[in-house]
Amino acid sequence: MTTLTVRNLSVSFPATGQTRLAALQDVSFTIAAGEMVAILGPSGCGKTTLLNVLAGFLRPTSGEALLNGHPISGPGAERGVVFQQGALFEWMSVKANVTFGPRMKGMPRAERDALARRLLGLVGLSDVSDRAVHSLSGGMQQRVALARCLANDPALILMDEPLGALDALTREKMQELVLKLWHEAARTVVLITHSVEEAMLLGERLFIMAPRPGRILQDYRLPFARAAQTEGIRAVKQTQAFQRQRDEILSLIWDMEEAIMGSDTEAEPQGDGTRAGKSGTGKAA
Ligand SMILES: Nc1ncnc2c1ncn2[C@@H]1O[C@H](COP(=O)(O)OP(=O)(O)OP(=O)(O)O)[C@@H](O)[C@H]1O
């Protein structure tokens, strides 16, 4: 199983004039094999930048990301990415989408068919195997995207708001599915979400990020994802422990958002290219 190590990772982008924007600054963490980590934080705190580095789409300005001790220097088949919108081949059938990667790698047809049957069964789409993807609902398309990701047998699964475009009811069902897949596939998962409840339900670890510079403010270890696997999401959400934790995280993020709004007019460029402001101070720091 896969261990992910990030050491002193910084990513900056050219900003106005001579300044640079510190999208990520000196971020370090280790994610153990089989852990599911949710990442939550206000807009612009560097969540997608971090995921892009882990996917190998973006090279860090300094520092490194290592997968089982090997530096990540580009995209790789051992990492699967699921986006908010499935990035599927809409004209192909569900089955053809799911088996696209294995077909490219030369997997024989019978083996591919068996793989598609197993994965489509896992995500509850056995009966639409031959349908064109464009004829499916948004929730079904995201299930195809999950199955397609799993078909490539990635050791590390990276998800950027995979359920963000779904209605509330479908989203809850999909959260159950992600928990089931995580349990059955036993993969290391990093998931970005804008929903506090989703982050708490799916992340046995939860990174709260802050912007300017982008960094990890809190690293929570939470019991809810494990509990939800046995007791179900609805039951866990109703517990006092869940509600107390949610209120704490909500007020942390609320304070951060307030600070960001205030700092928008006050922030000045610094010599190191970051911007001074109130974000990340006070309770959130
Ligand atoms: N290619 C780029 N060029 C310049 N600036 C960038 C680039 N990509 C990201 N940024 C900036 O880096 C910061 C972090 O962006 P990022 O997209 O990682 O944030 P995020 O937390 O994912 O935001 P959101 O929740 O809105 O998706 C933002 O200020 C963004 O404007």
From TrEMBL:
<comment type="similarity">
    <text>Belongs to the ABC transporter superfamily.</text>
</comment>
<protein>
    <submittedName>
        <fullName>Taurine transport system ATP-binding protein</fullName>
    </submittedName>
</protein>
<dbReference type="GO" id="GO:0005524">
    <property type="term" value="F:ATP binding"/>
</dbReference>
<keyword id="KW-0547">Nucleotide-binding</keyword>
<keyword id="KW-0813">Transport</keyword>
<keyword id="KW-1003">Cell membrane</keyword>
<dbReference type="InterPro" id="IPR050166">
    <property type="entry name" value="ABC_transporter_ATP-bind"/>
</dbReference>
<keyword id="KW-0997">Cell inner membrane</keyword>
<keyword id="KW-0472">Membrane</keyword>
<keyword id="KW-0067">ATP-binding</keyword>
<dbReference type="InterPro" id="IPR003439">
    <property type="entry name" value="ABC_transporter-like_ATP-bd"/>
</dbReference>
<keyword id="KW-1278">Translocase</keyword>
<dbReference type="InterPro" id="IPR017871">
    <property type="entry name" value="ABC_transporter-like_CS"/>
</dbReference>
<feature type="domain" description="ABC transporter">
    <location>
        <begin position="6"/>
        <end position="236"/>
    </location>
</feature>
<dbReference type="Pfam" id="PF00005">
    <property type="entry name" value="ABC_tran"/>
</dbReference>
<feature type="region of interest" description="Disordered">
    <location>
        <begin position="262"/>
        <end position="285"/>
    </location>
</feature>
<dbReference type="InterPro" id="IPR027417">
    <property type="entry name" value="P-loop_NTPase"/>
</dbReference>
<dbReference type="InterPro" id="IPR003593">
    <property type="entry name" value="AAA+_ATPase"/>
</dbReference>
<dbReference type="GO" id="GO:0016887">
    <property type="term" value="F:ATP hydrolysis activity"/>
</dbReference>
